[in-house]
Every structure is written in structure tokens, then in C-alpha cells.
Task: inverse folding
């Protein structure tokens, strides 16, 4: 099955002819095709349902008006305005109708993409972090190689942030605040917490307030209070553990903490932080590391990982070779 749909935003669905036919139930083969897509990628369900609602709220026309028809529309508009200029009430009513007609013509001519709120998108690359102030003054510290999206226009009604990667949130009190990741929903009212969702791993730490974590695939729920965290690997059940909220032990404090993590996992984090590629044989990658690493220079950080593991490293440009 084509995995391009995992990259789709709302506007992509709304301009996909096969999806429109599916949403309007016009073609049984399209309906079955999209059912197969959702079976393979259940994480698309919410986005697809929202797109279906939008498709069915618009009138899609196949025939685009010709230049002659467009000229005729504007001619009628001018004529109606002239005919009614002596009667204020009639003029207002007709102009209102004309405005609606014009708006409909514009939508027909230019499509609906321009009136769809696709939201704000903030993306960080490797070796880049960012601090974002949300519309309610909640703060998001976005880690390297991560992305968030949110909608300003609906923020007062629905405080929803979609996250891919890792971020630390400091949330202002108010309505329910939801962070959606590929594997979970994290719900809070006013608190500070860290969310990590990369590859097959999910990790959520609660620093203040309360945090509810809902696994998408297992549909189990855990409520976290300060000092408690939850992790999930390979889609298994959520598991909790504790940590010291007073200790500086997260990325925004320039510290990486690892508890019995494979070197493959550790090296992947360092690759993001320093925008490098680490090459090592499988026997090295399968070894496990526990400890805290203060993020200083690339060389010092590599030394702090390799020295206790009795490993050597060699830096060649953006590539680092790890050997025994």
C-alpha cells in the first residue's frame, strides 16, 4: 500500500480525486481502496474523518466556467447594482446576494484550498532547537529534528498541538490542552511536561500538574503526577517509572540521560544533536549504556560516551566512525 498518505495534510485529501469519490461514496472500488488504506494506517483515521466532513460540506463542481461565462457574471453584477442604486434597502439586499454569488464563483474558480486553515507549522532540523509561544502564551521548547503544528483560528475552542519528535511544554491554565503524537494523546489542563515520540519509542515525563497519556494502538490510559513518567516501545503497553523533577536531566538543560539504552538509540540522539552520521558495527550498536551526558562540543560528547564503553572514535567531516 502506498505510504504517501502518511505525509498527507487536510488539503492533500481535499484535492485527491479518489479520496473525494470515497468521501461521497461515489465509487465502490474507491471505497474499498480507502478502507484498505485505513486498515494499514489506522493512525490516519482522525484526519480522514475530518477531511470527509469537509468534503461533504462543500459542493464540488466538475465544470469550470469559461471566460465568456465569467464576463457574463460580472456584467450581471454591474447591471444589478445600477438598477438598484435608487433604493437603499433593495440595493443592500441585492449586493448581499451578489457578494454571495461572487464568493461562490471564486471558490469554484480557484478551489477550496485557500480557505482551509492548514495551521501553523514549526520544524527544526538536526542541530537546531526552537522556542515557540502559542496563542495562549503556553511555551513549547522544540528539540532537534522535530515538528509541531497547531491552528491559531480555532485555538480558543481547541488547544491541540500535533508533535513529531520531542518537545518540552509549559502550559498555561485553561481548557484542556492536547498534544497528539503518532502513538499517543497527552492531555493536560495546566502543567509542564516533556514528550518524546520517535521511531518505536514513546516517553512522557510530568514535571508539574497532571498529565493523562492515552496510547493510540493499545488504547490504555495512565494519569501521571509530578515525578512520574511513562514509556512505550514497539507498540506494547504503557509502563510507568519515576524520576527526580529537580534534577536537570532533559535535553533543554543540555543534558541527555539514558537508562539502559542501546548504543544504537544513544548514537541516533547524538546524530540529531550534532547533525552527524555515526557508523559502527552491529556488535557495538547492540551494547547498552546508562548515564548522563552533558552536551558540550561534539568531540567532548563523543568522548563521554565512548570512554566508559572502551570504544574509539574517528571524526571525518560529518561522519564519525566508532570502533572497539
Result:
Amino acid at each position: 500500500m502506498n505510504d504517501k498518505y502518511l505525509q498527507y495534510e487536510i488539503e492533500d485529501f481535499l484535492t485527491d480525486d479518489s479520496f473525494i469519490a470515497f468521501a461521497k461514496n461515489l465509487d465502490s472500488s474507491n471505497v474499498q481502496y480507502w478502507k484498505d488504506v485505513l486498515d494499514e494506517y489506522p493512525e490516519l483515521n482522525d484526519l480522514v474523518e475530518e477531511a470527509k466532513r469537509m468534503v461533504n460540506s462543500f459542493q464540488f463542481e466538475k465544470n469550470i466556467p469559461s471566460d465568456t461565462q465569467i464576463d457574463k457574471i460580472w456584467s450581471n453584477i454591474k447591471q444589478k447594482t445600477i438598477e438598484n442604486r435608487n433604493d437603499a434597502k433593495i440595493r443592500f439586499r441585492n449586493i448581499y446576494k451578489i457578494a454571495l454569488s461572487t464568493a461562490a464563483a471564486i471558490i469554484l474558480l480557484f478551489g477550496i484550498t485557500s480557505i482551509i486553515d492548514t495551521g501553523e507549522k514549526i520544524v527544526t532540523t538536526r542541530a537546531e532547537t526552537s522556542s515557540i509561544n502559542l496563542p495562549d502564551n503556553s511555551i513549547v521548547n522544540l528539540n532537534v529534528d522535530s515538528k509541531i503544528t497547531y491552528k491559531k483560528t480555532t485555538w480558543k475552542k481547541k488547544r491541540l498541538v500535533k508533535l513529531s519528535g520531542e518537545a518540552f511544554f509549559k502550559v498555561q491554565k485553561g481548557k484542556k490542552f492536547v498534544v497528539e503524537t503518532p502513538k499517543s494523546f497527552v492531555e493536560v489542563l495546566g502543567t509542564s511536561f516533556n514528550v518524546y515520540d520517535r521511531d518505536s519509542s514513546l516517553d512522557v515525563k510530568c514535571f508539574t500538574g497532571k498529565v493523562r497519556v492515552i496510547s493510540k494502538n493499545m488504547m490504555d490510559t495512565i494519569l501521571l503526577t509530578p515525578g512520574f513518567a511513562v514509556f512505550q516501545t514497539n507498540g506494547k503497553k504503557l509502563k510507568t517509572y519515576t524520576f527526580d523533577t529537580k534534577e536537570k536531566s532533559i535535553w533543554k538543560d543540555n543534558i541527555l540521560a539514558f537508562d539502559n539504552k542501546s548504543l544504537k538509540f544513544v548514537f541516533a540522539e547524538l546524530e540529531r544533536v550534532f547533525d552527524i552520521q555515526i557508523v559502527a558495527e552491529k556488535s557495538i550498536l547492540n551494547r547498552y549504556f546508562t548515564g548522563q551526558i552533558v552536551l558540550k562540543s561534539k568531540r567532548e560528547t563523543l568522548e563521554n560516551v565512548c570512554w566508559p564503553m572502551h570504544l574509539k572514535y574517528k571524526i571525518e567531516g560529518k561522519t564519525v566512525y566508532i570502533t572497539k
Summary: Confidence is low (pLDDT under 50) at residues 59-65, 88-93, 102-115. The chain has four domains: 3-57, 67-114, 120-242, 254-323. DSSP finds nine helices and 18 strands in the chain. The longest helix spans residues 88-110.
